[in-house]
Amino acid sequence: MAFKYYIPAESISELTINRLSVYLRCLQQLENENTTTISSQELAERFHLNSAQIRKDLAYFGEFGTRGVGYNVPKLREHLVNILGLNEERRVLLVGAGNLGTALSHYSGFNTRGFRMVAILDADPHKIGKRVPGGLTVEDVAELPRIVKERKVHIGVITVPATSAQKVFDQLVAAGVQAVLNFAPAQLKGHPEVKLKHVDLKISLELLSFFLGHASRIASMS
Amino acid sequence: MAFKYYIPAESISELTINRLSVYLRCLQQLENENTTTISSQELAERFHLNSAQIRKDLAYFGEFGTRGVGYNVPKLREHLVNILGLNEERRVLLVGAGNLGTALSHYSGFNTRGFRMVAILDADPHKIGKRVPGGLTVEDVAELPRIVKERKVHIGVITVPATSAQKVFDQLVAAGVQAVLNFAPAQLKGHPEVKLKHVDLKISLELLSFFLGHASRIASMS
After folding, report:
1. Pairing verdict, β A90-95 and A71-72
2. For residue A203, which of B91, B13, B15 has the smallest C-alpha distance?
3. Is A115 in a helix, a strand, or coil?
4. Which A residues in the span 2-61 are in contact with B, Cβ-Cβ below 8 Å?
5. What is the tens place of the pLDDT at every residue in A19-30?
6. Can you tell me the ipTM of this complex?
7. Beta bridge mates, B65
8. Which pTM value belongs to this model?
9. What does A192-210 look like in DSSP terms, one character per residue?
């Protein structure tokens, strides 16, 4: 019945953390609907999740439910916010003001609770000085070290072409950024003290391709 | 020892399919390095995966390994290509020629083996007729039903603002598209015969936020 969460000593997989994000969205929706209590079974049925998996994932971080009653929705939501570190502001810097970078600079979610976009950089003199839709002005990538330090950047997002991605990653690491999200289709050599996550948008297309190949079963799987 | 794969009767989760995509990338890399055989343990260690999970995921689709020897890398890669349906061409249509749509129209991976981008549509008269970097010309969204039919589109990708996303989804369904990837930050009402996948880019940022909160453990988790 302890509602404090603890940081587990063992490794937690990225898939577990991604599922916490999914649970958080489900709980937010339930809270919007004024649901105050839900069991892992109900949560699983409502959102097509796995109830044993939910219990196992949450058990990493403590005991959140009450046996026979279930989870308190607002409390569990708040715990997930804390576990994911979304109760603090994470300052995000974007490198690469092309179409993808510009899109992300005003992507809903990159500038909401927990995250704040503080800069968008590029090396192209034609782009530097231009305003992007989110309200930021493109700054010179040569200023990266100063901007990271002054604006206390936590997360760097790489949206440059594949050929420049490693150089940008190394610059972000040298400047002291602790976490990097890479959208460039390049395998980057990481750094032991910096968390690097590669976003591969093709994986979502491959998922759809699988379902197309087994179309008769789509209805039961969505 | 049968190398044919079969389509399982029970439901397979999206997470399993996403892991198949990850295994495919690992095997492609191993094949590039001329590795011909690998055990699930070696595969797990090399790419920071879980060997029991690998065996369980693959077991859904048949028996691919040889006990005491491991997996034949090129054969397993080819099986995964077939399971994911990437041996056939999936034709992709994009709706929304803003920054994100334009970025995706020439995103590496959306136009490689297995996928072909056949159209990008928009409602804005200023965008219609303009060429995007991938080589396509923006067409009028009013032509969606004709284009889907003539170009035999399998997958629709939605990159319009949230307020228009449901309307576009319904148009894609009415036109006969079987699978939809939605980038708009909107909860769409689905259709029982159409596979709908929502891409939430914020989940990757939340993953990094988690690791920032537990930075001392980053090195052991990458």
Report:
1. unpaired
2. B15
3. strand
4. 7, 11-15, 17-18, 20-22, 24-25, 50
5. 899 999 999 999
6. 0.86
7. B71
8. 0.81
9. TTBEEEE--THHHHHHHHH
